[in-house]
Write a structure and sequence with these properties.
The complex is a heterodimer of chains A (353) and B (281).
Chain A: H1 10-13, H2 20-35, H3 40-47, H4 51-74, H5 82-98, H6 103-122, H7 130-150, H8 152-155, E1 161-162, E2 167-168, E3 171-172, H9 176-198, H10 201-211, H11 213-218, H12 223-249, E4 251-252, H13 259-272, H14 277-304, H15 309-330, H16 334-348
Antiparallel strand pairs in A: 1-4, 2-3
Helix pairs in contact in A: 4-9, 4-12, 4-13, 4-14, 5-6, 5-7, 5-12, 6-12, 10-12, 13-14, 13-16, 14-15, 14-16
Chain B: E1 20-31, E2 34-45, E3 49-53, H1 60-67, E4 75-80, E5 83-84, H2 93-96, E6 98-101, H3 113-120, H4 131-134, H5 137-158, H6 173-186, E7 191-195, H7 203-219, E8 223-227, H8 231-237, E9 240-245, E10 248-253, H9 255-259, H10 262-269, H11 271-274
Parallel strand pairs in B: 3-8, 3-9, 6-7, 7-8
Antiparallel strand pairs in B: 1-2, 1-4, 4-5, 9-10
């Protein structure tokens, strides 16, 4: 039995999944994800929740969280405007769909539009860092929020914009189960992209900009170019998430893309793990699933004491907030770091040294 | 100048223009009312180890910062490899073949040693955010080629095989200094600017580092500009020494010549002691 992981070529060491055991698990997980829709009815009735809907939301948020993680976790540039950038993607996809564009053209266009807007509002990052950049990007959030609400001729204002669901070679993806594969495809693509970009030249330059921007410049990294590029890629991903959202929910209104969504994205990557590829996945799962799980005790209590429904409803929000705070205190590096700790433990178990 | 016969490791000869790799011509640098450098000029010969010494605050690091284009001298020219680099953007300097290490370690603390060194290779790589994101064919082949080169040339030379997958922030100081040298080497430099590479090291680590610098200089033919306070090291390994004090050059020559120069002795030891002692010997 080998006492560690050893490789005989650089190429083998370069693989994402290095052992056959890991590959087996990943293949099993992937097969499970692929066949899940066949059992969605059973899953829904077993849990009393619309599980497929949760899956779809997770996939959409994974894409956006990966985007913000690339910007905040890897490049170290904070953004409080990603909720609005997602809105830009959603409205772009929605408007183009209304004009009759097929979704496989409208969706990339949503990404490109969000990227353009994101790069524009990322320009202050050349001079601003940390909290100051947070405030500058927050301005982007408010400006875009205002535009979405008041540019009625384009966005439909607060009445919203109705989008027909995506059609793919004549198949209408209007059910949770059919949309599932579309969202899964893009979530997997986004994850692979993030993993690959962060282990190649561009991603290393991003981390260099985050860790020591002075020595990054000495080794030949153009700070301006890479900061703006990071804003662009990040907003592209969140724009794709927005486009998918538009095709999934089929009615877009400005209410969804507020400051709250931006903060939620930021919380997702912090709870999930800044600068870890898994961070966006864990964060999205945490933020979609936990409120649903908290609903169960809240609704049970409401059945017993029907008159104080309002209190339990807000209790749910408070417990959610409390859990997030506890996470930040006890696992500031996020769920991804905890995952690595657990894995390292089992790798050596029962010999802990 | 003294008339001692054996001046340095290599015999002095007249500098031909094609032998000069780096030239500072009358550099003036000012911060507000403070003159950090006033009219410093010297030439660095191709293949030499050029030391810059001087008391604290003499302006040694300022010279390196001017060469790296962190600072903008308000007067004077810096000529590298026959080209005036006084107005080149900071991030372009790496492409020209100038690499440096810092006095206070400036590594990317959250990354592994290997990634730090790969970053040194940044300007020599091609993959962008699309090809890198797909990581197919060319991009992967490039990663592996760079990895091979780094492992077999740099990591092997500097003897850091055992730590190459460790995160830099967790390493002891001596290793971090070595990793910083490795990152500079990955830039395939023509000239290596080292800012106190031996600071805070014990005797053994200092000797290792001196050996690495000599190896790099002799085997790779890289010109080295070295700032160092350890006079023993400076006297042993450098071909030529420039002495700065209060932003001006007070002496230049072989280590032996410099160590017997009365201005240098005065700058280091004060004028009274100058009559009785010799610097560092």
């Amino acid at each position: 039995m080998p006492c560690g992981l050893f490789f005989s070529s650089y190429r083998k060491d370069d693989a994402i999944f290095k052992t056959w055991w890991l590959r087996l698990w990943m293949a099993a997980m992937f097969v499970a994800l692929l066949v899940y829709p066949l059992f969605s009815a059973e899953a829904n009735s077993l849990t009393g929740m619309n599980v497929t809907n949760l899956f779809n939301l997770i996939f959409i948020y994974v894409i956006g969280a990966h985007g913000l993680n690339l910007l905040t976790g890897f490049t170290g540039q904070i953004s409080l405007g990603h909720g609005a950038f997602m809105g830009v993607g959603a409205y772009t996809a929605g408007i183009l769909a209304k004009m009759g564009w097929p979704f496989f053209v409208a969706l990339p266009a949503a990404g490109v539009m969000a990227a353009a807007v994101g790069m524009l509002f990322g320009l202050p990052s050349l001079r601003l860092k940390g909290l100051y950049l947070a405030i500058a990007t927050m301005a982007a959030q408010f400006i875009l929020d205002y535009a979405m609400r008041n540019w009625t001729s384009l966005t439909g204002g607060s009445a919203g914009l109705t989008v027909h669901s995506a059609t793919f070679f004549g198949i209408d993806l209007n059910t949770d189960e059919s949309f599932y594969y579309l969202a899964l495809f893009f979530a997997v693509l986004a994850t692979l992209y993030l993993k690959n970009v962060t282990r190649s030249r561009t991603g290393r330059a991003f981390v260099a900009v985050r860790d020591r921007y002075l020595s990054a410049e000495v080794i030949g990294v153009n700070l301006f170019q890479y900061r703006i590029m990071s804003f662009g890629i990040s907003s592209f991903m969140v724009g794709i998430a927005g486009g998918l959202w538009a095709y999934y929910i089929t009615i877009i209104s400005d209410e969804h893309f507020t400051m709250w969504l931006s903060v939620q994205y930021l919380a997702m990557v912090i709870v999930g793990g800044l600068g870890h590829v898994l961070g966006g996945i864990f964060g999205a799962i945490f933020f979609v699933v936990l409120p649903e799980l908290l609903r169960i005790p809240a609704e049970a209590l409401t059945d017993i004491y029907p008159n104080i429904f309002g209190i339990f409803a807000s209790l749910r929000e408070m417990v959610f907030g409390l859990i997030v705070i506890l996470f930040l205190i006890f696992e500031p590096d996020g769920l991804a770091a905890r995952w690595h700790t657990v894995r390292a433990y089992w790798k050596l178990w029962p010999f802990s040294y | 100048m003294s008339a001692v016969a054996s001046p340095g490791r290599r015999a002095p000869e007249a500098l031909k223009p094609e032998d000069v790799l780096l030239e500072l011509d009358d550099i003036h640098l000012r911060f507000g009312g403070l003159n950090a450098l006033s009219g410093v000029s010297f030439k660095v010969k191709k293949g030499h180890i050029q030391a810059i010494i001087g008391p604290n605050g003499a302006g040694k690091t300022c010279i390196l910062n001017c060469i790296c284009r962190f600072y903008n001298p308000y007067q004077g020219k810096i000529i590298f490899d026959g080209r005036d680099i006084s107005h080149v953007a900071t991030h372009r300097v790496a492409e020209l073949g100038i690499a440096r290490s810092f006095q206070n370690i400036e590594l990317f603390r959250g990354m592994t040693v290997l990634d730090n060194i790969k970053l040194g290779h940044h300007v020599h790589m091609k993959s962008g955010f699309i090809s890198g994101g797909l990581y197919l064919g060319k991009a992967q082949a490039e990663e592996i080629r760079v990895r091979t080169e780094i492992e077999e040339r740099i990591i092997d030379l500097l003897e850091i095989e055992a730590i190459r997958k460790k995160v830099v922030g967790t390493l002891p100081y001596g290793f971090q200094k070595r990793v910083e040298l490795a990152r500079a080497l990955a830039m395939r430099p023509k000239v290596l600017l080292l800012d106190e590479p031996m600071a805070g090291m014990n005797l053994e680590e200092t000797e290792d580092m001196a050996r690495f610098i000599l190896d790099i200089n002799q085997e790779w033919g890289v010109t080295v500009v070295l700032i160092e306070h350890d006079m023993g090291v400076v006297m042993d390994i450098s071909d030529s020494v420039v002495v700065l004090d209060f932003g001006t050059k007070i002496a230049q020559g072989s280590p032996k010549e410099v160590s017997q120069n009365p201005h240098v002795i005065e700058a280091y030891l004060g004028s009274e002691a100058a009559a009785h002692s010799k610097l560092g010997l």
